[in-house]
Amino acid sequence: MPKLLVSRALPDSVMDALRDHFDVTCRDTTQPMDLPECRAALADYDVILPTLGDAFGDDAFTGTIRAKGLANFGVGYNHIDVEAARKAGLVVTNTPGAVTDATADIALTLILMTARRAGEGERMVRAGNWQGWHPTQMLGMHISGKTLGVIGMGRIGQAIARRCHHGFGMDVVFHNRSVKSVPGARQLASVVEVCQTADIVVTAVPASPETFHIIDAAALSAMQPQAILVNIARGDVVDEAAMIAALQNGGIAGAGLDVYEQEPHVPAALMALENVVLLPHLGTAALEVREDMGRMAMDNAVAIAEGRDPPNPV
User: Fold this and answer.
1) Which of 157, 184, 222, 251 can bridge 153 by disulfide, Cβ–Cβ 3.0-4.6 Å?
2) pLDDT by residue (tens digit) across 252-283?
3) For the chain, what is the HEC assignment?
4) Confidence at residue 44, expressed as pLDDT on a 0 to 100 scale
C-alpha cells in the first residue's frame, strides 16, 4: 500500500477510512510540521495530508522528493508554496465546498456576538458584576436592516451574504477582484468604498500576496465609527496593528475575530479590549464538517496515489 503521512489526527471515521487505502502514519502532536519534518516527509512518503500551518514553503522542496502530492485538509493553503510544489513534480489539492456553510455560520456568530456585545456580557455575568436589567444596559447594534459589506464574494462570501440578506433583511455590498452577479447584492469598485458604505464589514478572501493587509489603515479609517469588522478568512488579510489602533481610538465600534496575524499568538492589546470577540479559529469546528473535509482530502489523496487527476486541484 502507498505510504501516507497525516500531519495531525483527523476524526476517527476519517482515519479508519484512510487505513483502507494507505499505510498510514499520523503524527502524535497537535502542532504544525516544521521545515525539517516537511522535508523528511517529502522524502519518505508517497502522499502527505497537510493541515494549517505546516511549513511547506519553497525551501521544503529542495531535497529528495518521493511524494507525489499534498492532499491539504482545508480550503486555505497559504502554508503551501504551490508553485514550488509543482516545480518539484507534486500535485496540490484542497477541500473546497465542505467548509462553506460552517465558516459562514461562524461569521454570523461573530457578527451577532460583536454587534450585541455578547462576549462582554458573558464576562460580566461570570465575573459576578451583573446587577440586573435596566433600559440602557450594554446597548449594542441592531443588525436587522443594516448594510453588510463583504470583501471577497466566493463560496463563503456568498453564503454569508445569503444569511444576512434573507435572514436579517440586510442590504449587501461587496468587493471582488472579478465582476460577479450576486442576487440581493451590489458590487462596489474598491475595498475602501465597501468600508465607507457598510455597517458590518466581513472578510472572506483567501490568503495570498494580493490579499495581504487588504484591510489596511486606509480601509479602517474609511469605516464608520459605529461599524464593526469581522474576519473569518486568514489573519494576515487584516493589518492587525492598524485594527487595534482603530479599536482603541474609536475609529470602529468593534471586531469579531476567528483568525490572527501571527496565529496562535493573540496580541495582549487585543485581549485587553472589551469591544472585541476572540474565537480560537472555530470556522469549520463541527464534527460532521471535519468528517466531510477529511473524506474530500482522502479522495484527493487516493487519486494522487493512483496517478489520476484529483477532484480538487489548486
Assistant:
1) 157
2) 999 999 999 999 999 999 999 999 999 999 99
3) CCEEEECCCCCHHHHHHHHCCCEEEECCCCCCCCHHHHHHHHHHCCEEECCCCCCECHHHHCCCCCCCEEECCCCCCCCECHHHHHHCCCEEECCCCCCHHHHHHHHHHHHHHHHCCHHHHHHHHHCCCCCCCCCCCCCCCCCCCCEEEEECCCHHHHHHHHHHHHHHCCEEEEECCCCCCCCCEEECCCHHHHHHHCCEEEECCCCCCCCCCCECHHHHHHCCCCCEEEECCCHHHECHHHHHHHHHCCCCCEEEECCCCECCECCHHHHCCCCEEECCCCCCCCHHHHHHHHHHHHHHHHHHHCCCCCCCEC
4) 98
| HSE-up (13 A, CA, CB side) for residue 146 | 18
Set of cell numbers at residue 218: 486606509
Q: For residue range 75-124, list pLDDT tens digits in order.
A: 999 999 999 999 999 999 999 989 999 999 999 999 999 999 999 999 99
The C-alpha angle 265, 110, 152, rounded to 5 degrees, equals: 85
Residue pair 218/247 in contact by the 8 Å Cβ criterion: no
- The confidence score (pLDDT) of residue 86 equals 97
Residue 254: closest CA among 235, 275, 225? 275
Backbone angles phi, psi at 47, to 5 degrees: -140, 145
CA atoms within 13 A on the CB side of 165: 17
Q: Give the model's pLDDT for residue 301.
A: 98
- 486568514: which residue's cell? 234
CA distance 16 to 244: 44
Q: What residue ranges of the chain have pLDDT lower than 70?
A: none
How many other CB atoms sit within 10 Å of the CB of residue 96?
Answer: 18
How big is the chain, counted in residues? 314
Task: Evaluate whether 161 touches 187 at the Cβ level (below 8 Å).
Answer: no
Active site residues: 234, 263, 281
Q: Take residue 82 and report the three cell numbers written for it.
A: 504551490
